[in-house]
Amino acid sequence: MKKTIISGVFALALLVTAGYGVNKSMNGDSNGNMLLLANIEALAHNEDDGSFCYAGGKGSTSCSIDAGIEVAGMGVAGGCSVSCDHGYYACCSLRCTCKKDS
Amino acid sequence: MKDTIYLFMSILIFWGISCTPKDNINFAEIYIDFDSIETLDLSEEQEVIVEISENSIIKRIDELRIIGNKYFIRSGGNLFLFDSDGTFNVKIGNKGEGPHEFLHFNSFFVKNNNIHIYDSMGKRVLVYDFGGEFIKSISLSDQFTDIIPNYIYPIQDNRFISKNTFGGEHREIPSYSILRSNYIIESNINGRFLKNGISTLNNFFCNDDFLLFWEPLNDTIFSIEDDTTYRQKYFVNFNKKSLPKSIKDRDLYDAIAFTNKTENIAKYASLIRNVSENESYLRFTFIYNKENYYVKYNKLTKTTTTYKLTYKDRTIEPVIYFSNDSIFIPVNIDDNPDLNPSIIIFNE
User: Is the Cα torsion angle B187, B190, B193, B198 positive or negative in sign?
Assistant: First the structure.
């Protein structure tokens, strides 16, 4: 479990580079929050059961995170997004993916 | 007799292998020779100072386009318009839930002399004039069902190309689709599917003659041939500085993590982007050791020239725009965060 959390935090860190704001959107509910790297990492560290969704979550069909992606040591504009079909909900967190409705 | 038969069979096998059609044989290889890199010092080139004001604070440039005599700068989910001398004109639209606002800024383009912002969450395209005035909203509620475009860009024949949204590991979502003028998906590009939710901006090039796309950590530049077909058109050979195939084959998250390791930053070249093509040249940039390199490939002579872009005491932004014989290169003034980036114009 610990390994999962650590690798998850690492994956999210990939998505967020210093100097980039991050904002989340889910199902037309967008608050335009501007969060910094420290906030995201703190949220990720609070994940305890692998179900943490920074954007999206149960009931959401789509979500996205706009953030910088650090590649080869350089910031690249982009992000992560997912749009799910029936029977799944969208979860944008350490990775953007569809999770089965329980 | 037996020897004759063996000899005959060997010749047949050799002939057969030699004549076997090979996949992707019709592509050009662009060899990057790191021993003959030229330096392109931009310090003395024309500089356009991008005006900073209360409404035009740009931390970094995520997307740069020059359309007409205007600079379109996307930064942090906002779109700003500047004159060619850097004077701030207007910010286009706002994020919000109002009728003239976008929930999510996916992509923008200029069509019919108006600015269009595609909002996937709001399922619509918002249209503004060059003064920033809202004109209309085009609903896409009925256009997209199974496949949701993530980015939409105009292409030839009054149509669009889309990079689509990831649908989870359990679904095969085509990476790219061709859209009609009314945004309905006309066809999907066969044989290429989304494997993860990561997306980067600026992955298409289109003019009257060429339609190209490229992807993170892929050393190939692809061409879309018709409504359903793509092919490998250029392969960029970084030679000893190429990422190992075993890394490229990994999950993209893992491959990205590999490139960010300190020991690999100075070891491997990657991240081809800002691709532009005309009849004579293919031009693009890549990253090596946290620096930007510009490649100019002469299609007629099949020769490649590679430049390392430098600017004394300033940081060169990686979003570069090619236009005819000019290159527009944003640079940040490191020691003055109260200024917007400048745009350097290099006339070749």
Answer: negative
Instruction: Please identify which residue in the block is written with the tokens 């600015």.
Output: B115
- Candidates B104, B171, B270; nearest CB to A72: B270
Residue B336 belongs to a domain: yes
Report H helices in A1-102: 2-15, 37-45
Query: For the segment B100-151, what is each residue's pLDDT rounded down to a tens digit?
Result: 999 999 999 999 999 999 999 999 999 999 999 999 999 999 999 889 999 9
How far is B81 from B72, CA to CA, in rounded Å? 5
Please tell me the pTM assigned to this model. 0.85
In three-state secondary structure terms, B253 is helix
Radius of gyration of chain A (CA): 13
- CB under 8 Å to B25, separation ≥6 — which residues? none
Identify the residue among A23, A27, A74 best suited for mutation to test binding to B, counting B beta carbons within 10 A and taking the highest. A74
Contact present, B105 and B77 (Cβ < 8 Å):
yes
Q: What are phi and psi of B294, to 5 degrees?
A: -115, 130
* Spatial distance between the Cα atoms of B326 and B189, rounded to a whole number of angstroms: 32
Suggest the residue from A82, A92, A98 to mutate for an interface test with chain B (most B CBs closer than 10 A).
A82
b/e map A83-100, b = 16+ CB within 10 Å: bbeeebbbbbbbbbbbbe
ipTM of the complex: 0.84
Out of B59, B60, B257, the one facing A10 most closely (by C-beta) is B257
Q: Dmax over Cα atoms in chain B, in whole Å?
A: 92
Beta-carbon count within 10 A of B233 CB: 20
Q: For residue B191, how far is the Cα from the chain centroid?
A: 20
Give the total number of structural domains in chain B: 1
Question: If contacts are CB pairs under 8 Å, which of residues 15-74 in chain A contact chain B?
Answer: 15, 19-21, 23, 25, 27-28, 30, 32, 34, 62, 64, 66, 69-74
Asked if B103's CB is within 8 angstroms of A30's CB, the reply is yes
Domain span at B50: 28-57+242-348
Domain assignments of chain A as residue spans, ordered by start = 2-100
B160 lies in some domain: no
